[in-house]
Amino acid sequence: MQALTLEPALVDAAALLDRLDHPVWIFDIDRGRVHWANAEAVRMWQAGSLEDLRARDMGRTMSVAVARRLRQYQADFQAGERFGEQWTLYPAGVPVTLWVDFSGWRLDDGRMAMLCDARRAETAAPPDSLRSVDALLHTEVMTTLYSRAGRALYRNPASRSSVAEGAERLSSRLVDREDLRDLVTALQVRGEGKIIARVRTAAGERWHDLSARLCSDPVTGRRALLITEIDISGLKQAQAQAQYLADHDQLTGLPNRNQVIKDFSQTLRACQLRGDEAALIFVDLDHFKRVNDSLGHAVGDELLVQLARRLNDALEPGERVARLGGDEFLLLLPHREAAARAERRAAGLVTLISQPVVLPQTELRVTPSIGISVFPHDGEDIDTLMRHADLAMYGAKAAGRGSAMRFRPEMTASAQSRLELEVELRRALAQGQISVHYQPRVDVASGRIVGAEALVRWHHPERGMVPPDVFISVCEDCGLICELGALVLEKACAQQVAWAAAGRELTVSVNLSPRQFFHAGLIDEIDAILKRTGCDPRRIELEITESVLLGHDDRTVAALEALGRMGLRIAIDDFGTGYSNLAYLHRYPVDTLKIDRSFIRALSERPAITEMIVTMCRMLGVTMVAEGVELAGQLDWLRGHGVHEYQGWLFGPAVAPDDFDKRWPIPRLTAACAAPTAPGTAPCPASGAGS
Length: 691
What we know:
- The protein has 26 helices and 26 strands.
- It is an alpha+beta fold.
- The strands form 5 sheets. It has an 8-stranded mixed barrel, surrounded by 4 helices. A 5-stranded antiparallel β-sheet has the order 2-1-5-4-3.
C-alpha cells in the first residue's frame, strides 16, 4: 500500500485525504520534493503513482524566485502563520492555476514542510491576471503595499527578502528623514512621487530608485501607498567611479584640472568669508621632456608618480595638491598668513623635489621651477591666481630654474610677448608659413598603412619649426583656432585627393578643437571645403575630444549627425583622458575611438583601463586606434587584444607629404607579396588599391 511508505502519523490521515475531490499534498521545502500526496494530487501532477511523484526532484527545475518564496513560507510556518495564494503549477509542462491554502507541517525529523490544499478556480482567470501574478512572484522589482500609516500590507517575494530586521515600516526603511519628507510632499501635491534614496536592507544600506503612488487597498478599500523599488547601488558606484575619474589624474591619483576649478574655488570663497589668505603654488619640472626622450615615457611616468607622492605627503592640514597635466602640479595653501609663509614653503618644496628619485632602472634628480600667487593680493579668483602663478613660474625658469618666485605685477610683460606671438601667428596664416605633416595609421593585423593623421606645423622664418603645443593654445585664446583648423582641413582634403589620384586610398583624420566644433558656421564651412577640393568625404575622419560631448547634448548630436550625413567619419581623440561617461557615449554617432598614448605607455604595468576601453569599443562596434605606440611589446599587446589600428614612432613619425610618399611608397603587386612585413615597412596591399 502507498500509505505504508509514510510516517505513522500520516497513515490514518492518508486514507481519509485520498477520498477528497481536490488535490492535497505535503511538500518538503528543504529537499524540493513532494513528501506525500492524495490521489487527486497525484492525478493533478500527472504522475503514475505516489512513488513516481515522490521521486521527482522539483528543486532541480525550480526557479530562483520560487525557491526564495518557499523559504519565506517556511519562516512564516515557523511563526504559526497560514495563508492562501493563487499559484500556477506546471505538471508535465502544462500550466494549471489553483488557489492553494498553505500551512506548516512538521515532519518526523523536526523539519518544517508545507501542507498544500488546492482548489481549481470556479471560473478561468483572464490571461493578463495569471501573468501579472506570476510576474509579481518572479520579478526582482521590490513591490510593497503600505497602509497610510506606513505599515506593510503586502510585499512581493523580492521586497520581502530585502527587508532588514527592525525596518519593516516605511519610515524605518529610509535612511535619511529628508527622503521620506520629500516623498510625502510629492504624494500630497501630485499623488505620486519618485526618489533615489539610501535604504536599510537585509544586505545593509543600498541605493534604491523608489516610485510611490497613492491607491486603495483592494481588501479594505482604505487609502494605501504602493511603492516599487529597484536596487541601483551598482549604478551609483559606477557613477561615483566615473566622477572620480573625471576629477582625478589617472597616473598619480591626484585631483586634476577639473577638480582644481571646483574644489580650489570653493576653498577660496571660504577663505574670503573668514578673512584668510591662500597661496597658490605652481610647480613645473625643469627639462622633464629630456627624461621622456632619453629614458622613455615609462620612466617619466614613474618619476611623476613618486614626485606626486612626495608633494602629497608634504601637505599640512587643509592644503591641497593637484596635477594639471604633463609635469605641472598646483598646490593650494590656505592660511591666515599665507603671504608671509608662501615663499618659505615654496623653498622647502624646491629642496624636497630636488632630492634624488630612485627608480628600478636608474636614479634621477630633477629640479622644479615654482611660481607663487597669493589670494587676495594677486587675484581674487582661481583663474587669475593660476595665470599669475604661471607667470611667476616662467620668471623662475628665466632666472635659472630650480627656484621659486612670487608673482610681481611687472611679470605681465610676458603677456606682451604672447600678444606678439599672436601677431606672428596671424602673419603666418596670411603668408603660408603653416603646413601639414602626416603620421601613418597602420592596420595592426596586416601592417598595411590604411590612413594618416594630419598634424599642423609652423615654419617660422626666424624661430624655425615652432612646436604645436606652443602656438595651438595661443590660437585658442585669441580666436584664430577656427581659421587654423579650416586651413588644416582644406590641406588634408586636398592631400586625400592627391593620394587617391596616385592610387593610394587612405583615410585622412583631422583634429577639430572644441571651439571650432561649436563654431556656428562649421557645417557650411566644411561643406564648402569638401566641394572646393573634390575629396571623398568617406575618406575624411574628424577627430574631436571627449570634452565636446559634455554639456551640449542636443547641439552636439545635431552637429555630429549633420557631419555624418555628409559622409564624414567621426573619431573621439585621446579617449580616456577626459570625462568618460560610458553610459551616454552610445548616443553619439561615433565611428572611431583613439586610445590615448598614456594608456599605451602604461600597458606593461596598468593594462586594466585599456582592456576596459577595448571591451567597450567592441560593444559599441567602433574602430579602435591606439596612439603613441613606441615599442614592439605594445604592438603585440594590441594585436593580441584585437585592436584595429595604431600610430606612433614604432612605425614612423609625422612627415611632409613628399617625405611620406618617399618613405612609404605604394608597393607594386608581385608574387612575393605574401610574406609578412616588419613595423616601419610598407607591406603589399590586399588589393590593387595601394597601401
